[in-house]
């Protein structure tokens, strides 16, 4: 009997271990099934985000470095210029290759795309390409030797002897190019392909990006100055009154941006309601110029974006217990000192979220500055639209869009770093 007890105990232990393993396996199956169900429920949303967010951004970044016009239209020329030093006149074979490539084009639209691309590099490229395209079959008729083709092309247009046109073709002979991204940060490649700063008079996008950030920063600060006291007041009201007033805050969301901008045009003009009210109160002696300048842009953008500042602030302020302020006052602090030292630090999360949201929305604004601002008040998105709709330069538009995207991501990264530092200190 003394020998059977350990055996029975071992058998009971093995049974308990087997039951534990079986239970663990069942729990693992349940967990896997739960994860599959969660994934299936989230799959439509993930598919939607990929289709309307990830894919367009990937296409934008791809188009910013894609350069298909010259590579597709002039394949023989690209091959003939592959070993060219870009400092002396190309060999006659390059002239013959240009004539052959232009003669092989079946559609004038391809020649037009090539002409636009080269014209963006060198002024006069459009007329040179189209003129040579129309005469290309006569230039190459009868399969003349390359030297004869060169003479015919120079007789047709003497600009074929100028290096900038050939250098532009050689720089863009590859399907992929950094030129658009370089131009977006005021850099360029010279005739030999070396990256260099653009001439001072051509450095525009750096100033435009700085202006975009300046306007966005001003709008963010004004929204914070107006939204913080309003959100604080709403957070101290009874729930019924706060809900009614919050509806008034959200009214701008129900109105089109174009309608609101048109209303501000009416209000801010020299004979508008704002100037009439200020004149009637004796604040000003003559009407102010509030349209087609920076003031009109800031006023309209603040009106449109103010709810995006109030909502995060209100949600955070509602979670701050009022007893903290009362406790600080009861311990001898003045109400103002208690507000600044006790209440305000607890709302920093709402301030950061609201400021980030307003700033990011501001740097992408287009309609409001275009309608209410002057020539020196246009933001980066205006030039993206210009290159897309007017100049039909998709590569440059995509490069500026990529610059705006990376600026936004960098800003968000800075915000996340400060947020993590605040949490670690807290």
From TrEMBL:
Compartments (UniProt record): Cell membrane
| Matching InterPro entries | MetI-like, MetI-like_sf
What are the UniProt keywords, alphabetically? Cell membrane, Membrane, Transmembrane, Transmembrane helix, Transport
Instruction: Give me the segments passing through the membrane.
Output: 39-62, 208-232, 244-267, 297-317, 351-372, 392-415
Matching Gene3D superfamilies: MetI-like
User: Is the keyword Membrane in the record?
Assistant: yes
UniProt entry tagged with the keyword Membrane: yes
Where is the ABC transmembrane type-1 domain positioned along the sequence? 209-415
Name a GO CC annotation attached to this entry: plasma membrane
Q: Name one Pfam family in it.
A: BPD_transp_1
Highest taxon in the source lineage: Bacteria
The biological process GO terms on file are: transmembrane transport
The protein's topology relative to the membrane is:
Multi-pass membrane protein
Concerning its family, UniProt says: Belongs to the binding-protein-dependent transport system permease family. CysTW subfamily.
Task: Write the protein's name.
Answer: ABC transporter permease
Q: Which organism is it from?
A: Azohydromonas caseinilytica
């Amino acid at each position: 009997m003394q020998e059977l007890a350990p055996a029975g105990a071992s058998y009971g232990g093995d049974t308990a271990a087997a039951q534990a393993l079986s239970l663990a396996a069942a729990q693992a199956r349940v967990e896997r099934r739960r994860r599959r169900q969660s994934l299936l429920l989230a799959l439509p949303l993930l598919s939607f985000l990929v289709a309307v967010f990830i894919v367009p951004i990937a296409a934008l970044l791809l188009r910013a470095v894609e350069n298909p016009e010259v590579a597709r239209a002039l394949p023989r020329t690209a091959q003939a210029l592959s070993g060219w030093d870009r400092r002396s006149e190309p060999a006659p074979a390059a002239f013959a290759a240009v004539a052959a490539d232009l003669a092989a084009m079946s559609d004038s639209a391809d020649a037009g795309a090539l002409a636009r691309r080269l014209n963006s590099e060198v002024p006069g490229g459009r007329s040179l390409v189209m003129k040579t395209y129309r005469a290309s079959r006569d230039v190459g008729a009868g399969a003349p030797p390359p030297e004869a083709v060169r003479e015919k092309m120079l007789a047709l247009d003497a600009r074929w002897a100028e290096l900038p046109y050939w250098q532009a073709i050689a720089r863009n002979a590859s399907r992929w190019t950094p030129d658009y991204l370089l131009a977006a940060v005021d850099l360029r490649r010279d005739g030999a392909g070396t990256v260099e700063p653009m001439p001072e008079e051509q450095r525009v996008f750096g100033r435009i990006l700085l202006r975009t950030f300046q306007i966005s920063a001003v709008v963010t600060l004004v929204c914070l100055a107006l939204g913080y006291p309003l959100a604080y007041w709403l957070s101290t009201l009874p729930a019924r009154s706060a809900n009614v007033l919050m509806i008034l805050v959200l009214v701008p969301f129900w109105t089109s941006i174009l309608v609101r901008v048109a209303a501000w045009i009416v209000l801010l003009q020299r004979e508008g309601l704002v100037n009439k009210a200020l004149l009637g109160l004796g604040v000003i002696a003559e009407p102010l110029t509030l349209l087609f300048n920076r003031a009109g842009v800031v006023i309209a953008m603040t009106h449109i974006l103010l709810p995006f500042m109030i909502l995060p602030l209100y949600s955070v302020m509602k979670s701050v217990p009022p007893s903290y302020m009362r406790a600080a006052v009861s311990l001898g602090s003045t109400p103002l000192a208690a507000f600044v030292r006790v209440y305000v630090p607890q709302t920093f999360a709402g301030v950061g979220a609201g400021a980030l949201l307003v700033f990011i929305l501001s740097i992408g604004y287009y309609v409001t500055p275009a309608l209410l601002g002057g020539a020196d008040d246009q933001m980066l998105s205006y030039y993206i639209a210009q290159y897309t709709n007017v100049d039909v330069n998709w590569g440059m538009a995509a490069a500026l869009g990529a610059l705006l995207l990376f600026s936004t991501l960098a800003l968000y990264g800075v915000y996340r770093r400060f947020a993590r530092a605040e949490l670690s200190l807290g």
